[in-house]
Amino acid sequence: MSLQKINMFKRILVALLATTLLASCFKKDVCEAVTAKPSDDEIVALKAYVESVNPNAVFDPRGFYYEIVKAGSPNHPGICSDIYANFEGRPSDSEEYFVKTNNNSSAMYHDLSKYIYGWRYALPMIGMGGEMKLYLPPTLGKGNNTTLEPSYVPADKILVYSIKLIRYN
User: Fold this and answer.
1) CATH number, position 143
2) pLDDT (tens digit, 9 = 90+) per residue, 67-90?
C-alpha cells in the first residue's frame, strides 16, 4: 500500500471518528413515547382524592388530574427537553414533602425523557414561567418500581405536585 493511500485512509478514519464524537454531543430529538396507562381502580381512587381536595382540577384522558395555575410562555417543552423547575412533591396520604424547592438557585434539573411518566405527560402543557398542580396515580409516578429515579419519589402512591417551570432547553 502506498504512503499516499495510507495517509488518505488515516484522514478518513479521523473524519469518521470526529463525526461520531460530535454526533454524540447532540441531544436526542426522539424520545421514548409514554405508554403507561393507569388501571381503572387507580383512576377511581385518584378521582375520589382529587374531588375532595381540588374540584377545579381537570381530568386528562391519559389518567391524571391537573390544574394550570399560570400558563407561562407560548413555547412549551417537549418530552425530550431538559427542564429546570421549582416544585413541591408529596404522597397524597401525607402532608410531608419528599422534595421542595422554592427559588431559582435550588431549582431542580431533569431530563424530562428520563423522569416519571406523569411529568412527561403534563409538563408540555405549560410554558416557561408556567405553574401547575398535578395529581398522579401510582402508574404515572413510580408505580411499584422502587429502583426508578429519582430515588426520593415514593412508590405505589398517589403523588401530588405543585410545579413552576423555570426554563427548558
Assistant:
1) 3.10.50.40
2) 999 999 999 999 899 999 999 999
Within 10 angstroms of residue 126's Cβ, the number of other Cβ atoms is: 23
Alpha carbons 117 and 39: distance in angstroms, whole number:
14
Q: CA-to-CA distance for 161 and 50, rounded, in angstroms?
A: 12
- pTM for this one? 0.78
The answer to whether residue 24 sits within a structural domain is no
Q: Where are the alpha helices (DSSP H) in 54-123?
A: 117-122
Q: pLDDT, tens digit, for every residue of 117-135?
A: 899 999 999 999 999 999 9
Structural domain harbouring 85: 31-168
Q: What is the mean pLDDT of residues 80-106?
A: 84
Count of domains in the chain? 1
Task: Please report whether residue 25 resides in a domain.
Answer: no
Please report whether residue 3 resides in a domain.
Answer: no
Which residues, 6 or more positions from 20, have their beta carbon under 8 angstroms from its beta carbon? Answer: none
Alpha-carbon distances, residue 129 vs 69, 83, 136 (angstroms): 11, 12, 22
Q: Judge whether 120 and 34 are in contact, CB under 8 Å.
A: yes
Higher-confidence position of 127 and 105: 127
